[in-house]
Amino acid sequence: MSVKHYQKENLKFSFIHDLIVSVNHHFVPILSSELDLYEYAKKLQKNANCLIIEEENELLAFMFYYIVSPIEPSVYITLVCSLKPGGGAEIYNELINLVSPKVVKLEVDRENLRAFSFYKKLGFLVDSESIHDSKLILKHQLK
């Protein structure tokens, strides 16, 4: 398994856009039903860092995240995707360990019960409701 870590300054728009388009249908609801993928890729390029996990040049997972506070290391995961069947928790933990935050926040769609349940099992709790009615902000305090 190999890991690539890209700081926002080194991310190319075409790479980000192609990546999110390729996994668009892996999300519930699909990303393009709620976001303009072109504009979202521009936002990620400007603000997010990225981790990619590959095995034999095949994409297993990726995570785009923002550094919220470098003082008390905390991150906001804006997009995470595991393409490894049944390997979600293992991959997620590996991605988080590579960033080493104390606090992790992310947004999950209320309709995506599978994702909500997954994050709850990992120790996330509801922190607040998003401005968008269908979203919840989840928070996990790490040790």
Write a structural description.
By secondary structure, the protein is of the alpha+beta class. The chain has a single domain (2-141), classed as Aminopeptidase (3-Layer(aba) Sandwich). The chain has 4 helices and 7 strands, in the order E-H-H-E-E-E-H-E-H-E-E. It has helices spanning 13-22, 37-47, 88-99, 113-121, and strands at 2-6, 49-55, 58-69, 74-82, 103-109, 125-129, 135-141. A 7-stranded mixed sheet has the order 1-2-3-4-5-7-6, with helices on both faces. Helix 1 (13-22) crosses helix 2. It is globular, with a radius of gyration of 14 Å.
Q: What attributes characterize this protein structure?
A:
alpha+beta, Aminopeptidase, 4 helices, GNAT family N-acetyltransferase
